């Protein structure tokens, strides 16, 4: 069975491979997405190390001069996606979007480096990527934490990767829609509209794009100009984990300046993370930076915090919370608490299970000595594949496959889960 699943996953990676980058899925997402690519490369590394390094190299070939790595690279023309390059207008040699995505590259590069059999290639390829990743991290702390709090804000829900999470609802209400130019969505032509964000959310997504475009994508202005500034514990945990992995790799590859800077970011960030903890919710919460208040929304963002080296007692509390959640659903980890009024088992990030998040949470729990909960998450993830195939996401109550099909990062994560289950 495991072999058949592996072969199927490898086939999906091949099918979505465009030579030097991989599309998340045919139709719905026809370009290169930032965190999709980094997580995809981890799966590719089990099959072809050279190809895995190329996936990440290609992404960083499109890094901006200020250090930002954009969330989409539009390698080729495709009318099947909205918003395309004509909306973003970033004026890059190869068009890109103008916002970023969860910075998982540092983690991915270390993971691929650690498992690489071709050590010479790994040293050369990782060594060349380290300064680029470091520049991206420095950009984050400069441009998305201008007050130096230790944690970075997202300024658009698409940056979080959790586009329509309940976490953003209240802050998003303050984003106006006046002046949004008419548009036609394409996502709902590829996927069930009931599984996707709403039209009202799309209008606000586009309002923010138009606002930032009007500021010429100048990252020294965007953070303060944005009516949406949210500090997401999951997003920051990914950044801090990448800082830790970057530091370790930089030690190994003799780049001490990068190691020292990454450890400084890490220490400040981990200390600041504590300000997001809620005893009442038993997890971390998002901070609405505009208002200065925590957002009382029990989402997966606060559980993903365990991907970073948070204190042991916090990881244990998250383990307990996950065990409780596991009694409410068939498949861990729901992206929102099923007891909350806003929970929607089918709609994108308002309830469904995502295997990439399962992977990161399981990894964090494992590191923190919470092996039992991690094992349940891995088992549930493999069970979902057996039941419903390689979907974009799944209903946590009955495993219904949702969103796009034959999904690249789902396949990549399954390859990793199988490797872990085999150990
Ligand atoms: C989409 O188009 O749904 C993406 O999540 C935005 O990057």
- Largest sheet: spatial strand order: 3-6-7
Shape: globular
Note the gap between the termini: 16 Å
- What ligands does this structure carry? (2R)-2,3-dihydroxypropanoic acid
Number of helices: 17
Q: Roughly what is the average pLDDT, rounded to an integer?
A: 97
Major beta sheet summary: 3 strands, antiparallel
> What is the radius of gyration computed over CA atoms, rounded to a whole number of angstroms?
20 Å
Sequence of secondary-structure elements: HEHHEHHHHHHHHEHHEEEEHHHEEH
Proportion in helices: 40-55%
Strand content: under 5%
* Secondary structural class: mainly alpha
Q: State the low-pLDDT regions, or none.
A: none
Count the E strands: 9
How would you describe this protein?
This protein has 423 residues and is mainly alpha-helical. The chain is 50% helix and 5% strand. The protein contains 17 helices and 9 strands. The strands form 4 sheets. It has a 3-stranded antiparallel beta sheet. A hairpin with a 4-residue loop joins strand 4 and strand 5. Helix 2 runs parallel beside helix 5, helix 12 packs antiparallel against helix 13 and helix 15 packs antiparallel against helix 16. The chain is globular. The mean pLDDT is 97. (2R)-2,3-dihydroxypropanoic acid binds next to loops.
């Amino acid at each position: 069975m495991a072999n058949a699943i592996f072969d199927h996953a490898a086939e999906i990676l091949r099918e979505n491979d465009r030579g030097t980058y991989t599309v998340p899925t045919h139709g719905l997402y026809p370009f290169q997405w930032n965190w999709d690519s980094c997580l995809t490369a981890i799966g590719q590394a089990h099959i072809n190390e050279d190809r895995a390094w190329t996936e990440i190299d290609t992404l960083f070939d499109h890094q901006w001069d200020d250090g930002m790595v954009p969330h989409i690279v539009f390698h080729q023309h495709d009318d099947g996606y909205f918003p395309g390059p004509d909306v973003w207008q970033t004026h890059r040699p190869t068009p890109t979007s103008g916002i970023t995505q969860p910075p998982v590259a540092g983690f991915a590069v270390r993971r691929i480096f650690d498992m690489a059999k071709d050590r010479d290639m790994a040293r050369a390829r990782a060594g060349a990527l380290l300064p680029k990743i470091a520049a991206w991290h420095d950009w984050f702390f400069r441009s998305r934490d201008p007050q130096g709090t230790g944690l970075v804000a997202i300024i658009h829900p698409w940056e979080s990767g959790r586009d329509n999470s309940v976490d953003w609802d209240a802050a998003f209400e303050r984003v106006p829609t006046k002046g949004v130019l008419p548009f036609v969505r394409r996502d709902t032509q590829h996927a069930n509209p009931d599984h996707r964000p709403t039209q009202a959310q799309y209008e606000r997504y586009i309002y923010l794009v138009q606002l930032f475009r009007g500021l010429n994508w100048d990252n020294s202005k965007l953070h303060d100009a944005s009516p949406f500034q949210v500090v997401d514990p999951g997003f920051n945990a990914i950044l801090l984990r990448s800082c830790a992995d970057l530091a370790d790799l930089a030690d190994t590859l003799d780049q001490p300046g990068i190691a020292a800077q990454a450890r400084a970011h890490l220490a400040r960030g981990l200390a600041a993370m504590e300000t997001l903890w809620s005893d009442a919710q038993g997890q971390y919460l998002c901070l609405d930076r505009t208002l200065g208040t925590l957002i009382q929304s029990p989402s997966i963002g606060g559980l993903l915090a365990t991907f970073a080296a948070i204190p042991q007692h916090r990881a244990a509390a998250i383990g307990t919370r996950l065990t409780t959640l596991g009694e409410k659903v068939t498949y861990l980890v729901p992206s929102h608490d099923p007891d909350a009024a806003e929970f929607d088992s089918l709609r994108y990030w308002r309830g469904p299970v995502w295997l990439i998040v399962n992977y990161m949470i399981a990894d964090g729990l494992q590191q923190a000595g919470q092996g039992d909960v991690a094992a349940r998450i891995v088992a549930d993830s493999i069970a979902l594949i057996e039941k419903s195939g390689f979907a974009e996401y799944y209903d946590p109550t009955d495993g219904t496959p949702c969103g796009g099909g034959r999904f690249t990062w789902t396949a990549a994560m399954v390859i990793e889960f199988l490797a872990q289950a085999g150990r």
